[in-house]
Amino acid sequence: MIYDIEINSAAHYPAAGVIDLVEIAEGVGFGAFWKGESNSTDPLVLISAAAGRTKTIKLGTAIYHIYGRSPVTLGIQSATLQDLSGGRLLLGLGVANKSIAGWHGGVFDRPLKRAREYVEIVRKVAAGERVEYEGEIYQTGKRFQLSWKPSHPNVPIYLAGLGPQMTKLVGKIADGVVINMATPAKIREIAARVREGAREAGRDPSKIEIIAKSRVSLNPDRALVRSRLRQVLTFYNIADHYSDMLRGMGFESEVNAIQAAFQEGGFKAAMAALTDSYMDKLPVVPGTSIEEIKEKLLPIVEAGATRLVIPYVPVTEPAVEDARRFLQAWGK
């Protein structure tokens, strides 16, 4: 099991402060630093800066949305970052949703075909191969090839997956799956589908990484910690894909209550409807000590995750200082 850190969740971290935190994360033994993309700071810009200030920690995108840039552009960026970092890039990709596709002038359709074609092009470009791709969705034109030979041509690519079809596709084409907001039982279920997809494609299922996330907050005041995590969890309970997944994990009555409160009274009312007992069944840890946090993460480890990403949710401001205290406590 490898423990990774994500500095992204539920707060604005000034870009320069994030790089300071990545240095600390490397020093206390985290295996990778991950950064997601939505309307926050850009993952590749930040991990490029982190590459110059670190030596061993892996640098990942979780998740970079395929609508934000062409696959050729991302292939160039990946090859560049691999050279810059000495081969430390972990490229996590996702097909996003209708809203994010719309931000970038895209249309959310055929997610399986989009993911497959996009990954194929990124791999070829980043490897320095000649690319003349003619897919159903993506075309690259003629005679594209990098002007240099990449030092690390094999870029590990991971796909975000929740549903049956996407998670089976992961096993067929990707190096691993990134699982968000899943209970240990759901992680086992997704891992089984991923490995089934790998076997169908003639790949070794044991070589496919299972990357799971569990959000964590740390503060001596448990009520304050719960309040902060409640904000994050409320978002997932009203979001389309995640609310469906949460219902599928057996939390239909809880999700329905939160969504009804949201319709009647807005986000604050929805937060009030998210109970402590429900929170304790979800992949979050409202911790008052590092020892408690590590103990409560064990069920995810036992569920078969090969990497456990901890998106740290700061409880107090400034966010960078709160996260710094968490990282230093983890190292002790």
Overview of the structural elements:
By secondary structure, the protein is α/β, with parallel strands linked by helices. The protein folds into 2 domains: 2-219 and 283-331, Alpha-Beta Barrel (TIM Barrel), CATH 3.20.20.30; 221-282, no CATH class. It has 13 helices and 10 strands. Strands 1-2-3-4-5-6-7-10 form an 8-stranded parallel beta barrel, surrounded by 6 helices. A two-stranded parallel sheet has the order 8-9. Strand 3 (58-65), helix 3 (71-85) and strand 4 form a beta-alpha-beta unit. Helix 3 (71-85) packs across helix 5. The longest helix has 26 residues, at 240-265. The chain starts with a strand and ends with a helix. The mean pLDDT is 96.
Layout of secondary structure:
Blueprint: E1 2-6, H1 15-27, E2 32-35, H2 43-51, E3 58-65, H3 71-85, E4 89-94, H4 98-103, H5 111-126, E5 157-160, H6 164-173, E6 176-179, H7 184-200, E7 209-213, E8 215-218, H8 222-238, H9 240-265, H10 267-272, H11 276-279, E9 284-287, H12 290-302, E10 307-311, H13 319-331
Parallel strand pairs: 1-2, 1-10, 2-3, 3-4, 4-5, 5-6, 6-7, 7-10, 8-9
Helix pairs in contact: 1-2, 1-13, 2-3, 3-5, 5-6, 6-7, 8-9
